[in-house]
Amino acid sequence: SVANNLAQDARYLAELSRTEFQLFGNPVIVSNLLNRVRIDPAFRVMFLNENGEVLFSSDPDDTSSLGQVLQTDGLTQAQLGEQVIQTNYSIFRLNNVLVDVFSPVLTAQDEVIGVVRVSYRSESLFQFFARLRNLITWVLIIGLFVGTLLGSMLGLNIGNPIRRVTDAIYGLAQGVREEELPEEGPDEIQDLSRAVNHLVSRLDELEESRRHLLANLVHELGRPLGALRSGIHALQRGAGQDPDM
Prior knowledge:
By secondary structure, this protein is an alpha+beta fold. The protein has helices at residues 2-19, 27-37, 75-79, 122-173, 187-236, and strands at 43-49, 54-57, 84-87, 97-106, 112-121. A 5-stranded antiparallel β-sheet has the order 2-1-5-4-3. A hairpin with a 5-residue loop joins strand 4 and strand 5. It starts with a helix and ends in a 9-residue tail after the last helix.
């Protein structure tokens, strides 16, 4: 993205340089031009003639290079009329430059009369990365906090119903009948609570049926067994020797 923006700025400067050919070698006009273009201070703008000699640089550190032939990759292609974009992603950077753009200055007859070089220094890019890193750090911290909060809420929302279901099952195993479980929480927990409630209801029905069966057995067997018991008692007391009995 930075390289594409630099390429647009370089083409703009090259076009202005072509229409204002006299700016080459005149730092005052170049400074006025840069003020009009309002290029980011993080960029370094350099003007070279067709032979590669440095005519102007916006970087004060390049003062000693004025009038000297620049020795760098990409310049030869630019002198042939081709725009060159170079990016360096390696940690072993030279001259503290990450992005370099060379744009030829062409006349109406497509003759190269100079080269505009626009560079983006790693120091400025590192400042941007530092701001971005701080932003990402805060986003991660807030994300972790919100995630922890939501995770805790979700854990409580799931844990409490599961704990109630577990206690209800242990209570059934010990013969303790508890109240009907509330069917709340996620769908799976609701299905589990519903199943436990159905189990408790079914067990209550079976227990009630067992009590009715036992009562019917006592009722049906009690009367004849009572009569048999009375007869046995009478026989034990000598009723067997009484002709009437």
